[in-house]
Design goal:
The structure holds 2 protein chains of 2 kinds.
Chain A: E1 4-7, E2 10-14, E3 19-25, E4 30-38, E5 45-50, E6 56-59, E7 62-67, E8 72-77, E9 86-94, E10 101-102, E11 106-111
Chain B: E1 5-7, E2 10-13, E3 19-24, E4 31-38, E5 42-50, E6 53-57, E7 64-68, E8 74-78, E9 87-94, E10 105-106, E11 110-114
Classes of the chains: A mainly beta, B mainly beta.
Chain lengths: ~110, ~120
């Protein structure tokens, strides 16, 4: 119930294309869903986050879509750039406790 | 620079040894979290401290322990090291007990290699 399942494991996208990464969760007590971006040798950095009271949140080229009934959320990267090549993690947490449960990660490569 | 400082960046040690990893949280953050990242396990939550007290425990082995000091820095102690303990260890901090508005800020990690 504490798991967050992430797919795909890896993704190759052409420059200018749309990158889509999906996550699913079981625990309905989760109420905060962030996405993190990690470059080699660096720690994960918060990219964008959403609460379950909204279905979509957009920040620049990054959009989170959230489907509460399906218990799924996804990250869309529009106009993907080579600089977006990194590992992306979805995560979830509950209001009380605050620890983040991470998905397994998706290695994104954007080809120029 | 995320504001969360972890030392050392790299550590190579032998099996059976004990090491201490150090984390200084972002200025003003009271919560510190420790995560282990390995290739086959992803990012695994180990333990959380809030203002010096343990708040939550995850998949932390009995050979591992942590503490948070009055100046809010934290140390993760790993003992009787095994080859399987080789991993990246990350520290993160946040502003309050449920400090989502401040976000979770990760340090750059300590890469531990047990030989």
């Amino acid at each position: 119930q504490q798991q967050v399942k992430q797919s795909p494991q890896s993704l190759i996208v052409q420059k200018g294309g749309i990158s889509i990464i999906n996550c699913a969760y079981e625990n309905t007590a989760f109420d905060y869903f962030p996405w993190y971006q990690q470059f080699p040798g660096k720690g994960p950095a918060l990219l964008i986050a959403i609460r379950p009271d909204v279905s979509e949140k957009k920040e620049g080229r990054f959009t989170i879509s959230f489907n509460k009934s399906a218990k799924q959320f996804s990250l869309h990267i529009m106009d993907s750039q080579p600089g977006d090549s990194a590992t992306y993690f979805c995560a979830a947490s509950m209001e009380y406790g605050n620890k983040l449960v991470f998905g397994a990660g998706t290695i994104l490569r954007v080809k120029s | 620079d995320s504001g969360v400082t972890q030392t050392p960046k790299h550590l190579i040690t032998a099996t059976g040894q004990r090491v201490t990893l150090r984390c200084s949280p972002r200025s003003g953050d009271l919560s510190v979290y420790w995560y282990q990242q390995s290739l086959d396990q992803g990012l695994q939550f180990l333990i959380q401290y809030y203002n010096g007290e343990e708040r939550a425990k995850g998949n932390i082995l009995e050979r591992f322990s942590a503490q948070q000091f009055p100046d809010l820095h934290s140390e993760l102690n790993l003992s009787s090291l095994e080859l399987g303990d080789s991993a990246l260890y990350f520290c993160a901090s946040s502003g309050t007990l449920v400090g989502r508005s401040a976000g979770y800020t990760f340090g750059s990690g300590t890469r531990l290699t047990v030989v």
